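thread: overnight batch results

M.L. [08:02]
morning all. the overnight job finished for the chain we discussed friday. pasting input first so we're all looking at the same thing
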Amino acid sequence: MKLLANLVGIVALLATIAIAQTDPKGDAKDPARDLVACEVSADRQSVIVTAEVAGDWDFDAIQILIDTQPNQGFAVGAIKADLMVEGATLYRYNGKGDDWTWQRIGEVRRTVANRKLTTHISRDHLRTDAAAFIIRTLTGDWQTVVDTAPDSAAIKLTLREPAGDAAEPAIADAARDITNFTATQEGDEVVFTIAARQGGALGTYLLFVDTDLDAKTGFQPPADPRFGFEMLISGDRLHRHNGATRDAWQWEGVGPAKVTTDDNRMTIRVQAGLFGAAEMGAAVWAMSEDWRTRVDLAPAEGLLRLKVDAKPVAPRPQVQMAEPKVNRHLPARQRVREAQSFYCYYGSGRVAELSHYDLVILHTPQMASEDVKRLRELGVVTVGYITVGEDDPREARKGDGTGPGGYASWYFDDDNDGQPDRNPIWHSYYTNANDPKWRADRVAEARRLVEEYGFDGIFLDTLDTATARPHTKPGMIRLVQELREALPDAPIILNQGFSMLPELAPLADGLMLESFTATYDFDSRSYMLNYPQSIDWHLKRVQSEILPVIEKHPLKVLVLDYAPENEVERIQEAANRAATFGFLFAAAPIFLDDVYQVQVTGRPDPKWLKKMTTPELLSFKLDKPANGFPAGTVLMPSSAFAGYTIAPVVDGIEDRSNLHWSKAAWASAEDGEAAWVEIRLPQARKGGRLRIDFEPSHPSQAFFIETCAGDSGDWAIAHNVSQNTARSVTVSLPTSAFHSIRIRQEPGAGGPARPDLMWIAQIYLLD
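M.L. [08:03]
and the structure it wrote out:
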């Protein structure tokens, strides 16, 4: 439940080139600061400046001076520098030419090793096709130049190859190498198509639209004044820029975008009238997996122009500000318990719409402090987002520097790659709540939200990091205790964290159930009703863990489901399910960047009190022989993890590495109960062998092979397998007649990482 990642870096897409220059050794009085070599190179992302000195030195006083605009800047030797790097800071010259006046514009990445300093400067900061460089070392007081390289002239680097001498180099990431970008109008829709050299990663795109063709208005990408974008398409939404400044990454939802993919091609359809323009320009950026870096863009230069013939879409009805709530003078924690409506919004503005809810969950810095305080004055309980199990996706923090890769101690490195582990969808960094420094950081952030920003309370996201890493549960429980101690009067809303609910419920005021009935599938980039298995999983949690707890503690249970605003029937179904259990309900877009105006009233429906899956409903019957099993064989699993079926285990495909996860194996529900697969043969047989291929990373540690004769239901153990580590296991079957075979795993006997899960890729019956 996180934001669309902020745009952190923008990079150019150019071929790698390098210019090296030596400098006389011994021409400086201080050997440690005696420059002996320097090199300037460029890749698709950065200009890279390398400086080498004769002696050991920490490179504390060094300048990289850059001339990107002829005759504009501070005169240094043969150049007029308009950019300068000192330490890890990049400056732009804003003086008159004879005064030392510089403005900070950003940070650079630098490393020191073997008497060499390597500095990476984003190519977008240079804004030019060519640049000249001078490197200077200075005394420790920064007053005197010790050495300069080159001694005369400068290192000149051409940042673009001459036009027409070769085709544009292919991007290393073929799935993000844009090969075609078009925009047309079909009926009342604008249709964008994006093609890549290879399919698989078109989901990480940003499609910008300039609706007034004026570069001086709209969102201006960092350090790039060529563009001004009023609108953005990302995910399945069209957004409008509403930042207080042109470079502020703040957008509000305008309407839906219908996205479909076909291998290496993506099609995006948007109602033409939503743009509010007769002519517009568009550009698409393919972003890196973590959304921090632009990998490719189209067009290579300028914008793709399109004339639009459409009637403007009628604006949404204006929502009037709600009257102040009559209970606004009561304590905020009490008002949470009395709340009859809530919403979750991670955009900015929209105060009038939000004022009609009793409780709102908001995100900073998107929501301005003054808007938070205005809602609070009206009696709306305002709750600020804070993540407690993961850290900001933009950049890992150094902290005490004792963690993986020299970062903070609170990060994990379970894969032993020397870097903090990351969430594969949101790219945030997993954190260890057992670390007191992380807990102190979170308490300080919570205090800031309440005491400085003006929130009534806090919303704790990513609690389930501790569920995935059970050894951190004590730390997570202690963190919530510390938050309650620090903010005794502030409402605390938990997002999930069911396994810790008995300990956390006395400390909290609300509990969020996210994707309870309707959700978003990141693989297909589409909204959907939850898999029946997921609905059953939540049902079990509600019946066994939530309802018993809220009988003892006055927790307000909130349901947040994801659905398009126009899918009213789906929203109604989700609202009905929430009402069946007496929970508050809200529907929102996946990035929580819009405030829906659809209003539904949930109606309790007893169907939601029953399981949607049973072994019989999950069974699969072979219509032809497969994996040694005759036609008519029925495979029936005890359960299935959300999205999995039993059918793949008899498809006979040996190489499963390229299969979608849902087609590569069957996985049981992870519910703490015995897991099994029953195989009913069309006729009795004797003997043979049974081969089980587990999912390679997760062979069951212990399991039974059982057989049954006829329909008696009396199962006999044929084999008891224990201390297993093999991915593939073959066992002999009884020589007495049997009609059914069962593979059964007791609770906790699965792979070490997830012991309640049984995960099978293939099953074979061998003679």
